[in-house]
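**Polypeptide and fold**
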Amino acid sequence: MIYQYLNQNKDFNFYLFVIIVSIFNVHYYPILIFHTIDGLFFATIGFYCLSSNKKWLWIFGALCIGFSAICKQGFVVLIFLSWIVYYRKTKLIFLNILPLLSYLLFLMYHHALQDFVVQISTQHDLLQYGILKYILSPYLYFGFVLYIIFFKLKNNTINYILTIFIFGVATLLLITEKYHSQALFYLFGFIVGDIIFNKKNRILSIVFISISWTVSISVGYNSIALFGGTLLVYSLIIINNKIKIQYLFILLFVSITAFTYTRSNIIYRDLPKSKLQYKLNGIVQGANGIYTNKNTYDVLQELHQLKKSYHHLIALPDFTACQIFQSHLSPIRTDWSNKTEIPNQTILNKIIFSLKNATTQYTFAIAKYQTAQLSKGFYTYNKQEYLILDYIKNHYKKINETKYFILYQ
């Protein structure tokens, strides 16, 4: 739909905008939220195909939206949205739910339906993370006010000022590691204003707002950042009927410069690139060529030596990268055993049952310090965030203690 809109305005360069969208969507986080990214992939393809008049294409789009809900349950909202937006396509309802029905039948066949119900019912924070966080956000109302200014005072000067301001704020958030915060909600508020005051693109605005909302429904990553680049460029399109190609190149240059700076200086759980001097070659499987800070290197080096001495060793609680290749063999069934993955006693009981029935003798290496903070220093854990740790300490025997780990068996 954006592609069709851009083609109607010859001064817009679609490919330059695609690069800008990609830069701000990727921002500075690694690709951790893979289920959300997968859902976003299917949802965007789905809505694009649904806008086509070709029957085979919108059928494929309907199936894609259904698949998005399998990736992440919050994307179920988009199924209902597609029914409203494309209500004339009567076969849409069946096509949307076909992937979900197939998935449920697959679970029933493998006697996994009960586990599925337990999994999707573990979190009960939709009101907090999906509604109150938006309603109570001052940034959302700030963005709404920006749209009212644009709507009431439409002239070239105001448009230029708003373009520079909206793009500049997004860039500032990107280079100051605030892009994934609530501050980005100003884009959400701006497009909400477009929904209320502009009938022409209302459907497209509703689709974008709905996708960004579903992206943000997460306990661990409650942010619209993964769709922020799309909202940013769409906001610029709303403001400007035409943008000269030289101005687009300026926006692109600023985006690339900001992205280069960000990727070199804002590195997830690590120091800036210039301070990373320790190679992980041969220490972490799949990490050849990756550099880190001294604290992280020392901890991973010690863990590497422990794995040589203890077979079937499981590092707890936050050593995802070190055991991603073995997580499917672990009785804990997750490689990130924090409160997001093990939020309550019901899930913990399933893990306990798995541990009690394991035929392999496991050794648990519990880290003394937070892995997330190693680049900054050595900080102890908040035990309330890791339900599994108390069980291990109370039911397994302490067999050794090193500089960075306590071992239980």
